[in-house]
Specification:
This protein is α+β, with helices and mostly antiparallel strands. 52% of the residues lie in helices and 7% in strands. The protein folds into 3 domains: 169 residues, no CATH class; 131 residues, no CATH class; 116 residues, no CATH class.
């Protein structure tokens, strides 16, 4: 380590000839030779931003192990500071301060010096490995940035830590803590875009991404399961229609399309891209970085706002309409929302309540084999109960019909089935007809239901106690048969 005392506080600078570009002025005659040699590495013919970064890296690499004992303080302010921007006294102050930092002494200094030190770490200057560099950045954040409340610098460092992991391929176990927000956001996008996501998954995703706090909804608290399923259906219905002239759905309208685009790491720092082999870094299946042909690419979604305004408007309107439908909570004032959002939410809620109503109706399972057995047993019983005179009367009353005539009734109904159904629909005295024909009404009605099931998809005749009743919804369709 080079030992160097304080600068002369009373030293007065006199007019001096302007030095050549890239040459430090040795105003004290005490500048270490290492610094002078570093200056000679600067190429004044390079003037682009990339050239500035290259010059910085070359000089930083040369000064990588340089240490000096210098306690003097000085001022230095500069955006994107590099060594070439500094006078000799400022360079001495910086390297003296950096030496102390490397030995665990974190004195407050100029922000430009702190940024310059971070630039060195981002370029792997003064580290034994990428992992060591990451640890040094974390240590500097905890011991300097957080201690001295450098809020703006903290924001930059939080971004650089993520980009550092991408650039140098830090393993997932170490890097995971930096990407928690990105990983969760990608999980939300996957839940909202996938056809295989369940109601619970979509509900949680919508609540987390929404600018409206739906979790405080009184409807959700009172009807949690219904509300989650409803919100899931609302999202699916809204996402099934076009929202853009290009044909994009609601998801794409809110978050854009997944694509691969050129990006740049450490764009707000002095960082020199060295030649790297092709590599890939996956943060999640929805966000993958790659280096190819001298450029960084990101494959993913560009819109990463964690609170989406459009989703917020949808959830608020859904909450408003659910309160009306469930007759729960105070009525919310309708805000200005796109008309089709209101209509599609209303449709989804209406469909849900209709399905619940249908599901609540008793379902009758028809076993055709059992019906045949019951019918056969009924015929045998009926024949046993009839007297000879009754058998004769019945034979005389029933005119002979050809097989062709027996098929004239709709849905292959037999004559007694057709007539009984007609009497039930027209409120005629079906009981007398059943008695005169010695019909077992329950068996005949079961047979009618079986034959009409394929057409109506439901049980047409229900029993209220021992009274057969035709469902009102089907009366208009059945009356067509009488007209024919």
């Amino acid at each position: 380590m080079i030992k160097f005392g304080d600068f002369d506080e009373e030293y007065e600078y006199s007019d001096q000839p302007v030095a050549r570009t890239g040459v430090f002025r040795n105003v004290t005659g005490k500048i270490p030779e290492r610094i002078l040699k570093m200056e000679a590495l600067y190429d004044p013919g390079l003037s682009t931003a990339e050239d500035k970064r290259r010059n910085f890296y070359v000089q930083a690499k040369y000064m990588e192990d340089f240490e000096i004992d210098c306690s003097r303080r000085c001022t230095f302010q500069r955006w994107f500071p590099v060594y070439h921007d500094m006078r000799e006294d400022q360079l001495m102050c910086y390297f003296g301060w950096r030496t102390k930092v490397r030995y665990g002494v974190y004195e407050k200094t100029e922000d430009a010096f702190a940024y310059l030190y971070l630039y060195e770490l981002l370029n792997l200057i003064g580290v034994s490995s990428a992992e060591d560099g990451l640890q040094k950045i974390e240590t500097f954040k905890a011991s300097y940035i957080d201690i001295y409340h450098c809020d703006e610098m903290c924001e930059f460092v939080q971004l650089w830590l993520k980009q550092y992991c991408i650039c140098y391929g830090i393993n997932d176990e170490t890097a995971g803590k930096y990407f928690e927000q990105e990983i969760r956001f990608d999980q939300i996008l996957h839940a909202l875009s996938s056809d295989h996501s369940g109601a619970e998954e979509v509900f949680n995703a919508l609540c987390e991404i929404s600018s409206y706090n739906f979790r405080t909804s009184v409807v959700l608290k009172k009807y949690p399961e219904d509300t989650k399923v409803l919100l899931f259906r609302i999202w699916k219905k809204l996402n099934s229609v076009e929202w853009m002239k290009t044909g994009g759905n609601l998801f794409e309208y809110c978050f854009g399309r997944k694509d691969k685009y050129v990006t740049r790491l450490f764009s707000n720092a002095v960082y020199f891209d060295r030649v790297l082999s092709e590599r890939k870094y996956e943060i999640s299946p929805e966000r993958i970085y790659s280096w190819s042909g001298g450029k960084w690419y990101c494959e993913g979604y560009r819109n990463i706002s964690m609170k989406n305004k459009v989703i917020g408007e949808i959830l608020r309107e859904a909450d408003r309409q659910m309160r009306i439908s469930f007759k729960t909570g105070r009525e919310m004032k309708q805000k200005e929302v796109e008309g089709r959002i209101i209509l599609l939410i209303r449709e989804a809620i209406s469909e849900y309540f209709k399905e619940k109503e249908e599901a609540s109706k008793p379902k009758i399972s028809i076993r055709k084999d059992l019906i045949r057995n019951i019918r056969n047993d009924a015929v045998i019983t009926r024949e046993k109960l009839l007297t000879d005179d009754e058998m004769t009367e019945e034979t005389e009353e029933i005119p002979e019909q050809s097989s062709a005539q027996s098929k004239l009734y709709p849905y292959d109904l037999r004559e007694e089935e057709f007539l009984l159904l007609q009497m039930l629909c027209t409120n005629k005295d079906w009981k007398k007809y059943a008695k005169d024909k010695h019909l077992m009404v329950s068996v005949v009605c079961e047979s009618i239901n079986e034959k009409l099931y394929e057409e109506f998809g439901d049980t047409v005749i229900l029993f209220e106690g021992d009274q057969p009743v035709v469902q009102e919804d089907y009366l208009p369709d059945l009356e067509i048969m009488w007209e024919e």
